Amino acid sequence: MLEEVLKQIFxxxxxxxxxxxxxxxxxxxxxxxxxxxxxxxxxxFPFVKIAGKSPEILANEIGKEMIRESAxxxxxxxxxxxxxxxxxxxxxxSFFRDNHRVEKFGFKKVEGAPVVVEYSxxxxxxxxxxxxxxxxxxxWSVSEILKASGKNVVRVNLVNDRGIHICKSMxxxxxxxxxxxxxxxxxxxxxxxxxxxxxxDKYFKAEVKSLLPExxxxxDDDAKEKAKAAAExxxxxxxxxxxxxxxxxxxxxEVRRLWEMMNQWVYDGFDVTYKRLGVSFDKxxxxxxxxxxxxxxxxxxxxxxxxxxxxxxxxxxxxxxxxLDEKLLLRRDGTSVYMTQDIGTAQxxxxxxxxERMIYVVGxxxxxxxDVLKKVLVRLGYEWGNDIEHLSYGMVELPSGKMKSREGxxxxxxxxxxxxxxxxxxxxxxxxxxxxxxxxxxDALYNTIGLGALKYFILKVDPKKTMLFDPKESxxxxxxxxxxxxxxxxxxxxxxxxxSELGIMLSDDVTVSDIMPKEKPLLVNIYNWPMLLEQAAIxxxxxxxxxxxxxxxxxxxxFYQECSILKEENEDRRLFRLQLxxxxxKLLRNVGELLGISMPERM
Length: 603
Known about the structure:
This protein folds into three domains: 2-87, 2-Layer Sandwich (Gyrase A, domain 2), CATH 3.30.1360.70; 119-397, HUPs (Rossmann fold), CATH 3.40.50.620; 413-594, Isoleucyl-tRNA Synthetase, Domain 1. 55% of the residues lie in helices and 11% in strands. It has 22 helices and 14 strands. The chain starts with a helix and ends in a 9-residue tail after the last helix.
């Protein structure tokens, strides 16, 4: 790319002038500040001592030599110790001629060892909620960005379909469900099971309260905590739930049949949500199928003395010498914990794909868990544990605070998507955006706008940051929103349709010899796409992609406002501007796909 070429020209010019090689790591070009003339700038202060020149003299001498060395540097100027270079129009036009017809400009060929990306990882005791939406959108987008940068991506899901939380919903259905089903209630299966999870918590809390000592309110905080823990341990409801988990792991036929039936209800519900959200997976793993391998590996580690067993028969890994703590891997009754199944799942994936990287898209509350997972795997003899990467992201909060599944205070994913589409309908109809569309076309447009707004609002935030989600802010046709980006694409499509009606052929060659002031920033923005894509892949950051597409739209709208396209009298200039608009539209579609956002042709 241009910066690398300029870097080499700078180094060659410096050596020619001063018979010494400059410190290569200091040869860095940046975008020229808008108040100065230029495209790229280098600060020359780091080279003053070697050259034995003042900053201004050094910059001028280097600038003159670089122009002699390269035909695509048109001119330069010096502001104190800053050398600003102006790239020739011929360079930009040559780039445009070579690339404006390329359908997937900037995208690389997929090759190399697989990169496994895990995302979603739901529990089968509740429906997907707003937090899952961020997880799924991040996982999907990061996978697409890595693929666009040339990585061979395998997208996987791990369904947490066993454990004490699953048994809570099962116990609640047995006690208070009266044999109800998704069909008999008219509810999506995942919603129905989630209701029973909340119901269990309601009865459990009441039971624990009844078991607390009469003087509970007079106890100090430490005594209260102990009394509550004792009440929870003594709870008949929780004892029954723990017994069900033990029976499940022992393969009890009746418990397994109930588990399979209720899980299938949830899977059917998940599939509907995934399809609507636009995410999918190359392979789905189930904790119920991976935990046994994890248990076997843990027992092997115990036999080899890598792990140790306490008197109560529980199995642990001591990581205190590495600054961590002791980690439980098997409970005293022999049942598994999350870490157990994660060990088994990681082994299965490594054996199946031999990946160069395994990326887990999981919230930042699990940072410690993944630090431990990598250490435990290496202790067990799996050096590839060091190739595990936790893509940690911040939680999604609402204006009303954090969400709690057990208390039923989550924002349901299906309800949220309904709300986003309804908001898109309301705003679009108020602005007259679908006036000329049929009812079917209008419904499709509202869905595209609503889900595009949701995805953009979620993904434009740096993954590491906790975010506050407010649906009302996400749909605005003029702000930093998905709707603004979609509207920009529709605007370009409208111009291209009119050009077609006028018989203008975009396939003709570009013959302009110069670039006008408001054409250049748009073209340079497009030129920068491959470098931005590479950086977004390295940083696992859909936010960088979202910021880029927003800047591209702003630049196009500036161009659109200040440059006539169809009314341009010069035929060659008119064709160039149309082709520039067409290249922008293609890039908007391609970049939008990396965020899962569809671009409508009419709005």
